């Protein structure tokens, strides 16, 4: 796909600049957003409060008393031009394997509480609905499609440490699922959900509008930083991380939970290089090389 | 010294100026919902503006001090009681060890604040003492206060500025139920129908009871989104966008019906389009209204927003002079 020639610049009050790379989602738009974020961080302008790369856009918080808005816009436009001149970005990142118990009783029970008035098809489960709107045979096929290809963390946000992930699949094979008609007021912690073309991995209990597919046994947000994977920070995922979901059964779910309780659990992970050019030229090949890195980890 | 919480009130939390720099991880700024009222509390007790205060919602706590203390109650109008006897608001109050502080019924607004000399000295979490319940950080174990909590109070600093006994009336905020809130249009306002945009900025909107530190929901004539082909990845509803970051103070309108103003504990991003953002100078207003308040969202330019910001700062400078 091709991106619009220029990003759209718009102000969120006197403290926020929003740069919309494209209204629709693509790997390219996500790369431009992330590259501008990295470039802006390196410039270290005084008055920048926060740089929040999102799926196909970028949110920048600034202090207009320190950094005039016109100056910020000029700097970001310069970076946008530079970023677009570099073809085929490369990301030094990591691949993380994330176990998921699909079609589990916890998200099932929650779904049952939010049918009438919340869901498009109150008679079935979220998984049945997700499969049906994509013309798939059944929930099992949706589950298989969900974990067979890896995902890239395209944004972190909503609540503490919650990643949005975009599947490394050709657009024709992307699954798209409507969000709930009205958001649930409850979602079990570590629910893996689906909305639009994104997976959201709920870090904590709370509201949520994505269709629920399953539940993960290990934390992705650990404010007490008990586990080794949270040595640097309480949030596991960074934008650009690659994630491979692995289906597990109840026995393994409990076993991993026991390791988490004992403080010994570690996510299986490996360093990888993600190349946008390679991914666009031969996605399946690039996916294979990413997954091989996990095999030797 | 410390404060012991006898009854916690409706939703009393520790708040300071907020937590900045972690929005990119979904951790919101937090902080007192009425920063101005929290600041005048700190000024009255001789603190710096950075000290943490208690933010009380509608129904205040009952608490006891274990040592002599200097406090001030600011924000929404409320009867202040020391050992059951009325005491003034917006004044410096001296409590003796064992004194009990409690409150009557609030007479407007939603939030009042208790400042104490030395500040509420809970540990810093990511640079702030503000309570973020969803992320279980800040305040007391990352949650609203509960009966039996004992809050540490910091050592009193040498007062850098002359002592102030009370805040003059012309510096106090007002608590009207008819409020003009200045906003900057933008973000995804091009996705609203012409009538929808007109409704947003010309109609009167009523604050519903669905209002807290995360967001405030308003009732009114609705503001419809254009029925257009949706971009890939956004989701089918015309109010959906490809999930993006949310500016603090931005106004989203899920389904084109009820505008929601996102406040300091709101989610940092998501998939609902926003059509305007409350300017920084007017964010305090939401702690000063209660359900039923009638609000107009008045569009201003960036220059006007910056002028309002400078005005607010000048007013705060008068408090601190």
TrEMBL record, chain A:
One of its GO terms (molecular function) is hydrolase activity. The keyword Ubl conjugation does not apply. It comes from Leucobacter triazinivorans. Residues 7-236 form the Carboxyltransferase domain. This is Carboxyltransferase domain-containing protein. Keywords: ATP-binding, Hydrolase, Nucleotide-binding, Transferase. PANTHER family: 5-OXOPROLINASE SUBUNIT B (PTHR34698). The lineage of its organism: Bacteria, Bacillati, Actinomycetota, Actinomycetes, Micrococcales. It holds the Pfam family CT_C_D. The keyword Nucleotide-binding applies.
From TrEMBL, chain B:
This is Biotin-dependent carboxyltransferase. GO terms for molecular function: ATP binding; hydrolase activity; transferase activity. It comes from the Bacteria. Residues 24-315 form the Carboxyltransferase domain. SMART domains: AHS2. The keyword Transferase applies. It holds the Pfam family CT_A_B. Keywords: ATP-binding, Hydrolase, Nucleotide-binding, Transferase.
């Amino acid at each position: 796909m091709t991106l619009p020639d220029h990003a759209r610049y718009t102000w969120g009050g006197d403290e926020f600049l929003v740069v919309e790379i494209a209204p629709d989602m693509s790997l390219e738009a996500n790369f431009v957003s992330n590259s501008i974020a990295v470039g802006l961080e390196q410039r270290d302008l005084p008055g920048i409060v926060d740089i929040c790369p999102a799926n196909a856009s970028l949110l920048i918080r600034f202090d207009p008393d320190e950094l005039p808005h016109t100056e910020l816009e000029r700097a970001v436009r310069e970076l946008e031009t530079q970023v677009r001149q570099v073809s085929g970005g490369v990301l030094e990142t990591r691949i993380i394997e994330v176990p998921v118990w699909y079609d589990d009783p916890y998200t099932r029970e929650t779904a049952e509480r939010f049918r009438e008035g919340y869901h498009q098809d109150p008679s079935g489960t979220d998984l049945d609905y997700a499969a049906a709107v994509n013309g798939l045979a059944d929930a099992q096929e949706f589950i298989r499609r969900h974990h067979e290809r890896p995902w890239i963390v395209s944004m972190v946000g909503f609540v503490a440490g919650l990643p949005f992930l975009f599947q490394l699949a050709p657009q024709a094979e992307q699954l798209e699922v409507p969000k709930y008609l009205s958001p649930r007021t409850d979602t079990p912690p570590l629910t893996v959900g689906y909305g639009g073309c994104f997976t959201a991995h709920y870090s904590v209990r709370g509201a949520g509008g994505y269709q629920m597919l399953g539940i993960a046994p290990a934390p992705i947000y650990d404010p007490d930083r008990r586990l080794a994977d949270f040595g640097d920070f309480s949030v596991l995922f960074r934008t650009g991380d690659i994630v491979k979901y692995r289906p597990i059964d109840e026995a393994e779910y409990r076993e991993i939970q026991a390791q988490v309780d004992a403080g010994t659990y570690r996510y299986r992970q490996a360093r990888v290089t993600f190349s946008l050019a390679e991914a666009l030229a031969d996605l399946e090949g690039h996916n294979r090389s990413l997954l091989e890195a996990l095999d030797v980890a | 010294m410390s404060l012991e919480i006898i009854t916690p009130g409706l939703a009393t939390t520790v708040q300071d100026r907020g937590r900045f720099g972690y929005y990119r991880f979904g951790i919101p700024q937090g902080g007192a919902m009425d920063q101005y009222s929290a600041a005048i509390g700190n000024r009255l007790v001789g603190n710096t503006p950075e000290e943490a205060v208690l933010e009380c919602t509608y129904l205040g706590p009952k608490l006891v001090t274990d040592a002599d203390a200097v406090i001030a109650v600011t924000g929404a109008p409320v009867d202040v009681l020391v050992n059951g006897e009325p005491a003034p608001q917006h004044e410096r109050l001296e409590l003796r060890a064992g004194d009990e502080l409690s409150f009557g019924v609030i007479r407007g607004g939603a939030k009042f604040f208790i400042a104490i000399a030395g500040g509420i000295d809970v540990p810093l979490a990511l640079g702030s003492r503000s309570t973020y319940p969803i992320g279980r950080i800040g305040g007391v174990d990352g949650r609203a206060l509960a009966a039996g909590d004992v809050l540490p109070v910091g050592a009193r600093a040498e007062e850098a500025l002359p002592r102030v006994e009370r805040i003059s009336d012309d510096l106090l905020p007002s608590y009207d139920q008819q409020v003009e809130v200045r906003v900057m249009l933008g973000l995804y306002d091009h996705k609203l129908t012409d009538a929808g945009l007109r409704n947003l900025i010309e109609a009167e909107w009523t604050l519903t009871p669905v209002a807290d530190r995360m967001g405030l929901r308003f009732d009114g004539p609705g503001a419809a989104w254009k029925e257009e082909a949706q971009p890939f990845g956004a989701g089918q509803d015309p109010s959906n966008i490809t999930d993006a970051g949310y500016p603090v103070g931005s106004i989203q309108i899920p389904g084109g019906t009820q505008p929601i103003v996102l406040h300091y504990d709101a989610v940092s991003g998501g998939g609902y389009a926003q059509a305007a953002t409350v300017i920084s100078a007017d964010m305090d207003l939401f702690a000063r209204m209660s359900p039923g308040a009638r609000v107009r969202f008045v569009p201003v330019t960036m220059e006007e927003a910056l002028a309002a910001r400078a005005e607010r700062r000048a007013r705060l400078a008068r408090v601190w002079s």
